[in-house]
Amino acid sequence: MDEEFVKILGIESSCDDTGAAVLNNHTLLSNIIAGQQVHKEYGGVVPELASRAHQQNIVPVVDVALNKAGIDKSDLHAIAFTKGPGLMGSLLVGGTFAKSMALALGIPLIEVNHMQGHILAHFIKTEGEPYNPPRFPFLCLTVSGGHTQIVLVEDYLKMQVLGQTLDDAAGEAFDKAAKIMGLPYPGGPLVDKLAREGDRSRFQFPAPHAPGLNFSFSGLKTSFLYLVRDETEKDNLFVSKFTADLCASFQHCVIGVLMEKLRMASEQTGIKEIAIAGGVSANSALRQTLKEEAKNMGWNIYIPKMEFCTDNAAMIAITGYYKYQKKEFAGASSVPSARYEF
């Protein structure tokens, strides 16, 4: 097999973004995403509406991805899709489409773990840009709306979760804090934006404690809720007066917890190759704090491009590429898993 011509179509449908991407080995040829605006009026993703939107988007998104890549579907060597974790209805749409297309083309089908994809997004090559992927072994802080993990990455497909959230994920905590303040969904990016104008020392929150390298954010979220409730009873304009300070203080606490556990993991393993991944890795304060921490700890750090932080199909395709090399193919009996583990 001439690896120069290995072209993988990746399909991502774990939540509310329908994604399709084409890679030629590591090199990105196209990466198309269709979002769903319908969820904003509900303040969060509605699973049934998400799956219906995926059904509407999947065919045009794949078609655009192939056209932008400049290839025909007959040129594909395999199709990789998100098996999980995620919303079951959304996963079913992407998985069923991928199986049908692979069967029709007579090419291999590859199952991908969504969280593994976030980590391997660091290995995507973008034409004309520097290529500096992490060196093995490395630690990856994977932070998203549904997950918060510290993962030991020994090879492309050899990963071990060292610690994870015991309740809410960091991204979920950001969204819930935003909702408590009456900010629109999705709240995480708004918290980041408003925090830049705020005083992070204005409000103090108790740092959550969890054993070992695990995380816990439910107590922090509750503490934030009580503060807003109690202060609003005294002054109903409290939130509007201190929105930026609330965002800055809450964000500072969350990032402090993330960094504390990452330092612990680095010290325990002796690993100084450090990466971040997932939707929350787009957070500007997290990126800046990681850079500052790297100077203190002597870390080599790896921060993904913005387009590879949030859910995308390129990360599914790159994971599919490495599984293709090992011939880790799935059969027609493959089914999605809402809680798919590494």
Description:
- The longest helix is centred in the C-terminal third of the chain and has 32 residues, at 238-269.
- The chain is an alpha/beta fold and 342 residues long.
- It has 2 domains: 3-126 and 308-325, Nucleotidyltransferase, domain 5, CATH 3.30.420.40; 138-304, ATPase, nucleotide binding domain (Nucleotidyltransferase, domain 5, 2-Layer Sandwich).
- The protein starts with 6 loop residues before the first strand and ends in a 17-residue tail after the last helix.
- The strands form 2 sheets. It has a 5-stranded mixed β-sheet with strand order 3-2-1-4-5, with helices on both faces. Strands 8-7-6-9-10 form a 5-stranded mixed β-sheet, sandwiched between helices.
- Helix 4 runs antiparallel to helix 7, helix 5 crosses helix 7 (238-269) and helix 7 packs parallel to helix 8.
- Helices cover 42% and strands 18% of the residues.
- It contains 9 helices and 10 strands.
- It is globular, with a radius of gyration of 20 Å.
